[in-house]
Amino acid sequence: MSPLLAAGTPAPDFTLPKSPDANLRLADSRGHPVILAFYPADWSPVCGDELTVFNEVLPEFQRYHAELLGISVDGVWSHKAYVSARRFEFPLLADFEPKGAVSRAYGAYRAQDGFSERALFVLDSAGVIRWSYLSPVGVNPGADGILAALEALK
Amino acid sequence: MTARLTPPVGTGDHAQGPADAPVTLVEYGDYECPHCGRAYPMVKAIQRSLGNDLRFVFRNFPLAKSHEHAEHAAEMAEAAGHEGKFWPMHDLLFEHQDALEDGDLVGYAASLGIDPAWAAGALAQGVFTERVREDFASGVKSGVNGTPTFFINGARYDGLVHPTSMIEALVAAATPE
After folding, report:
1. What value of ipTM does the predicted structure carry?
2. Whose C-alpha in A1, A45, A51, B128 is 20 to 30 A from the C-alpha of B136?
């Protein structure tokens, strides 16, 4: 298992589905900070998990012109239903085929379980990783580390 | 990265128990969140068990996009706090999570002897919006990762939300090394 990509590494480019009929290419997001939030699975049993918190904190992220992208190995239809059920106002990308390829490229894949780690990356406007964090298994990260990293970009 | 309570507990907080208690438990919660509703009797049990060895503090963390009544419920708790009735309102809200419409909230205020017209006006004018927003912002800074999130003597508690595990962690934090 390759280690989590560290600060200073150019973020590997990728193109992933963000909805049943549209893709998102990371390189198109140059010019502003990007937050990548890898997470194990849609439909986690707690209502107030990390994505729900991030959804509430979006205005704070937007103060730094930062774009938030969630990534898991779930497919586009699961993502679509999950976004709608939780009223998420940011896209979830489907690292579905080939399964987990982008998560692996970032060192954020749990091969033994077949899903992504809870891992966070903050990219600067040139697409370079400026902060990364791997959360212990079963512990949701808060938004504090992301906000500190965005603040440090200024 | 250890998530630390920021800012620490201060005079502006709603607290139960002695200020010099050996251990302080802080909850960031949402009155409409079912997990917070389940934690509510657990916190009561923990308070009964630890007595004066525990100070308990509640801060607002309404997940307003998920729970449409959470923001006003939090503001009503703060309005009641302004009238010296924070904890009775806090308890009423968690005991009536299925009835948190504005009319219900004003009714709870009236039942606690708070002028219902004043309470309704406070909600309508957003008098306590800023107070709730400050709690929320402090939670984000502190590393709140869902609701409820607990802090024990300033450090985020990532263990099971269950009285036995929490009392164990609280007693350990209260015991000098």
Report:
1. 0.86
2. A45
Q: Do B1 and A139 touch (CB under 8 A)?
A: no
Q: How many CB pairs under 8 A join A and B?
A: 71
Q: Is the CB of B2 inside 8 Å of chain A's CB atoms?
A: no
Is A57 near chain B, with CB under 8 Å?
yes
Query: A24-80, pLDDT tens digit by residue?
Result: 999 999 999 999 999 999 987 665 689 999 999 999 999 999 999 999 999 999 999
Per-residue pLDDT tens digits for B46-74: 999 999 999 999 999 999 999 999 999 99
Test B66 with A147 for CB contact under 8 angstroms.
no
- The per-residue DSSP string of chain A comes to -PPPPPTTSBPPP-EEEEETTEEEEGGGGTTS-EEEEE-S-SS-S-TT-HHHHHHHHHHHHHHTT-EEEEEESS-HHHHHHHHHHHT-SS-EEE-TTTTTHHHHHTT-EETTTTEE-SEEEEE-TTSBEEEEEEPPTT----SHHHHHHHHHH-
Cβ neighbours of B141 in A, within 8 Å? 144, 147
Contact B63 A133 (CB under 8 A): no
pTM of the model: 0.92
